[in-house]
Every structure is written in C-alpha cells, then in structure tokens.
C-alpha cells in the first residue's frame, strides 16, 4: 500500500524526511495513548511497538490489540498530514496492516529488534545505491542488475567512488531508524486562583537514534526499557534463522469458510458524549459510519468476503480497521461541518470464520436482532430521561419489559409509533455491491439520476433476517 501511496504523494527517494517525521510523530502519539507500550522502533514505512511483559491490555487478545493500534495510528496519520505536508493534499485514504509477534524471553525480543534494525541497514543501503544509480541515468533494471548479490562493503565503495558519498555520514534517521520510549515530564496543566502553576506528571515520548538498539549498552542506558522489558544478557551479532522464521509466522484463517470481520468503535460512549451526538441515534454519525463502510468495500474490491478464501487474519482486520478509521477522520467535516473533531477515534476488529451459509445468515440475523433490541431500549430510555426521569429511574422502569410493552410505552406516553421511526435506526445499515446499474451519492441510491455502472457500492436498510432478501440478492453471497 505504502509504495503506491508514496508515489502518488511524490515522497523523496530513497528517504523522505517529512514522511519519516510524520510516522515518528504518529508513533509518539501511539506511545502516549497506550500506557502499556514501552518502546517503539521504526524505519521506512514500518513501526514495531513493544508492550510491557505484564500487560493485560484487552486481555491480551491479539486481534483487538493489533487492529486498535493500526486504527489509532491511521487516525493520527491523517490528522497530522497537513502539519508535515502543508502544501500537499492527501490524495487518498491510507491504511496500515499490523501483526502481533510474541517474544517469550528478553533474548527473543533482542533478536527481533536486531532483525528489524539489520533490515533497516540493508534496506537503506540498497535503496541509497539504487536511487543514486537511477538518478545518474541508469534504468531501473540496469541498477537492479548492478546491485544484485553485492555485499555491504561493495555498496559502500560504490557510493564513495561513484558518487563521493560516505555512507556513514548520511543522516541517522535514514541509516539507523528511530526509537521512541517514554520519559516522565512535569507539565503545567493550569494555574490555580492565586496564579500558581498546577503541575502534573506526564509520560512523554522521546525520540532517539542509536547504532544498535539490540545492544546491551543501549538498553542499559534506559531504565524504563530494562525495568519493563527485561535485561539483555549478552550482545548478539547475526540473528538465528529459526528466530526469523518464528517472527514471520502467519496465522491464516480457516480455508473454505465465510470470513466475517467485525469492527467496533473504541470507547465510543465517551466519543459520542464529547462530540454531543444526538441520543439515542445521531443520523449524521450513522451516515458517517456508513460512508466509511462504503469506502472499505470500494477499497478492498479484491478481498472476497465470500466462500473459500483465506488470508492472514491480522492483515485483514488491521487493514480494514485502519482504512475505516482514516476515512472517518477525513470525512468527519462532510458530515459535521460545524463540529470540530476533538480527538482521533479508533476502532478494533476481529475476524470469525463461519463454516456454512446457514450459520452465516444466523450470525447476520443475530446482529440485526441486536440492533433492534438496542434501538428500542435506547429510544424508550432517552424519551424517559428527556421527560424528566433520572437515568436510574429510567433503567428500573424498563427492567424486564418486553418488546410489546416498550412499544406501548412509546405510543401511549410519547405518541411515538415505533414502526414509523427511520429504518436506518431500526434496521441498521447493509452495505453491498448492487447487481443492477444504479445512481448513488455517498452510498445512497438516488432516483431520477443518470445510472452508474453495476457493482456500485450502496447502502440499504433492509431486513436481512428474512429469507426473501437473500433470495432477491443471490449475488452477494454467491459461491464464486
Ligand atoms: P468499548 O467498545 O468497549 O471500547 O466501549 P464503547 O464505549 O464503545 O461501548 P459499546 O461499544 O458497548 O457501545 C457503543 C456506545 O457508543 C453506546 O453505548 C453509545 O454510548 C455510543 N453511541 C453509538 N452511537 C451513538 C449515537 O448515534 N448517539 C449517541 N448519543 N451515542 C452513540
Ligand atoms: Mg465500542
């Protein structure tokens, strides 16, 4: 993804300083957001975040953790874009993939970090040679051919003799990558009535460069690292191939099953409060969510949610969660033109495999029933609160009530016929590729307009529990 992204945005080759600084600043935000992340190391377009050994973050559920970090990272990336590229428009929505690597001992962690930094060295040295050759007039394949099988030493000599570049003097940011860890700093939060500063300790991310981040000397200089992550007992050179293989392990989804990825807003209770979403349903907020789902379907045209495809699960959920999140931040202003986005939202994701068509439809029906139950409860609850009851009184009032009683309450006390409320609230939203050619705006079918091509992504608020829907739209879950 990032290769195309960096081409479209004309990043400098082989290294774009502003792009690297943007990534570093996003990673600093990740460190400050998640208390259990102790250390981060990154170069080029990747970053590794090391959690403290005793972390219980999300009960150590890999899917939640990896998707949440990718999602938050993406939100910060699009938020900070203009700070680092004031003259350049963000041309399209970035997404990031992530995975969890478990390191069972400090030695394994040390090997992992050494592996990433050795990759940084090798990668940067190759790219520096490659782009110098191309800039000096060689074609891409000529440059590739010349560099094939060359050793480190030969590359250094090439740079020195042909281009007068002493590799060792190139910026550390490019050669060594960047490390981040946290330091406690005292900060003035406000002043009291007498004008005295009120101070608070905050953990602030600090950036350093180091020749060897897996060296004992580097580790021993920073108590926060060895205290939370452990001591390195000796220095290492080459990383054991077995370790590398274990780091590259991919957890694939069960083949020949329906893969469902569900994402969920993280702490959206607070997010909805801070942004004063209407209760119980904020139509604009729901439409914003829908347009993000549309973007996911448009972007991942070649991810088949259909039968018989498997892929690495971490890649799927992190890519979807992060694309959804960056779309959310980018489109916020379209849906809330007069409301400022106060802080970056994040979404977590999980993937489940369903072995049969019937179980898949059961799953979808379960979600729609949940939507109905929640919406009916929330509609009653907020009407009661708005009519003067406290939240506890309203909860007690609704305890144990059935669907029919809730409908009667709405009708008799508030003159609301539940079944006439907007479908988007009662049914939720389905996003699908249309079979017929339709005209769409923001994912909504509009009549009386010139028809677009078929396969357009549309939003509908249909009843997906009834068989009829699936019989009318056999193409959605076709066995192709
Ligand atoms: P975690 O998912 O565990 O991080 O917590 P959460 O706060 O996101 O809660 P949960 O996912 O269980 O529920 C979503 C919450 O989002 C609801 O409880 C509401 O508070 C809020 N929410 C979602 N949609 C709307 C909306 O349209 N209007 C308002 N006012 N709140 C909403
Ligand atoms: Mg939530």
From TrEMBL:
Pfam families on file: Thg1, Thg1C
Annotated keywords: GTP-binding, Magnesium, Metal-binding, Nucleotide-binding, Nucleotidyltransferase, Transferase, tRNA processing
Keyword Metal-binding listed: yes
Cofactor: Mg(2+)
EC number of the protein: 2.7.7.79
Domain tRNAHis guanylyltransferase catalytic: 5-103, 243-355
Positions of the Thg1 C-terminal domain: 108-195, 359-466
The family this protein is said to belong to: Belongs to the tRNA(His) guanylyltransferase family.
This protein's name: tRNA(His) guanylyltransferase
Originating species: Brassica napus
């Amino acid at each position: 993804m990032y290769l195309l992204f960096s081409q479209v945005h004309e990043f400098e080759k082989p290294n774009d300083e502003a792009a690297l600084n943007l990534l570093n600043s996003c990673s600093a935000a990740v460190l400050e957001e998640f208390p259990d992340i102790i250390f981060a190391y990154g170069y080029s377009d990747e970053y590794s975040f090391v959690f403290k050994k005793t972390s219980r973050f999300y009960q150590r559920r890999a899917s939640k953790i990896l998707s949440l970090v990718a999602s938050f990272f993406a939100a910060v990336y699009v938020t900070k874009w203009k700070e680092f590229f004031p003259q350049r428009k963000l041309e399209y929505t970035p997404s990031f993939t992530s995975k969890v690597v478990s390191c069972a001992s400090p030695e394994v962690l040390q090997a992992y970090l050494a592996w990433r930094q050795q990759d940084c060295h090798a990668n940067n040295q190759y790219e520096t040679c490659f782009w110098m050759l191309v800039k000096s007039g060689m074609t891409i394949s000529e440059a590739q051919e010349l560099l094939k099988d060359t050793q480190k030493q030969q590359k250094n000599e090439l740079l020195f003799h042909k281009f007068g570049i002493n590799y060792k003097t190139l910026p550390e940011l490019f050669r060594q990558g960047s490390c981040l860890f946290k330091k406690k700093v005292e900060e003035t939060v406000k002043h009291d009535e007498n004008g005295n500063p009120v101070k608070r300790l905050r953990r602030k991310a600090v950036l350093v460069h180091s020749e060897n981040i897996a060296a004992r000397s580097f580790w021993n200089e920073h108590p926060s690292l060895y205290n939370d992550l452990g001591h390195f007992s000796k220095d290492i050179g080459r990383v054991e191939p077995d370790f590398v293989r274990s780091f590259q392990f991919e957890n694939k989804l069960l083949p020949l099953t329906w893969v469902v990825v569900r994402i969920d807003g993280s702490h959206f209770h607070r997010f909805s409060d801070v942004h004063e979403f209407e209760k119980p349903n904020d139509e604009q907020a729901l439409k914003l969510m829908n347009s993000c789902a549309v973007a996911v379907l448009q972007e991942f045209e070649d991810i088949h949610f259909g039968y018989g495809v498997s892929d690495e699960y971490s890649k799927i959920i992190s890519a979807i969660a992060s694309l959804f999140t960056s779309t959310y931040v980018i489109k916020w202003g379209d849906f809330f033109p007069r409301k400022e986005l106060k802080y970056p939202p994040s979404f977590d994701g999980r993937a489940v495999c369903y072995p049969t068509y019937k179980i898949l439809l059961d799953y979808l029906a379960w979600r729609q029933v949940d939507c109905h139950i929640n919406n009916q409860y929330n509609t009653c609850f907020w009407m009661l609160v708005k009519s003067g009851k406290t939240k506890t009184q309203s909860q007690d009032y609704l305890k144990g009530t059935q669907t029919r009683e809730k409908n009667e309450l709405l009708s008799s006390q508030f003159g609301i016929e539940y079944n006439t409320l907007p479908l988007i609230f009662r049914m939720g939203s389905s996003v699908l590729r249309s079979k017929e050619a339709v005209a769409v705006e923001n994912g909504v079918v509009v009549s009386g307009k010139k028809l677009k091509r078929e396969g357009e992504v549309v939003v509908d608020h249909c009843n997906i529990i009834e068989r009829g829907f699936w019989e009318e739209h056999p193409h959605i879950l076709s066995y192709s």
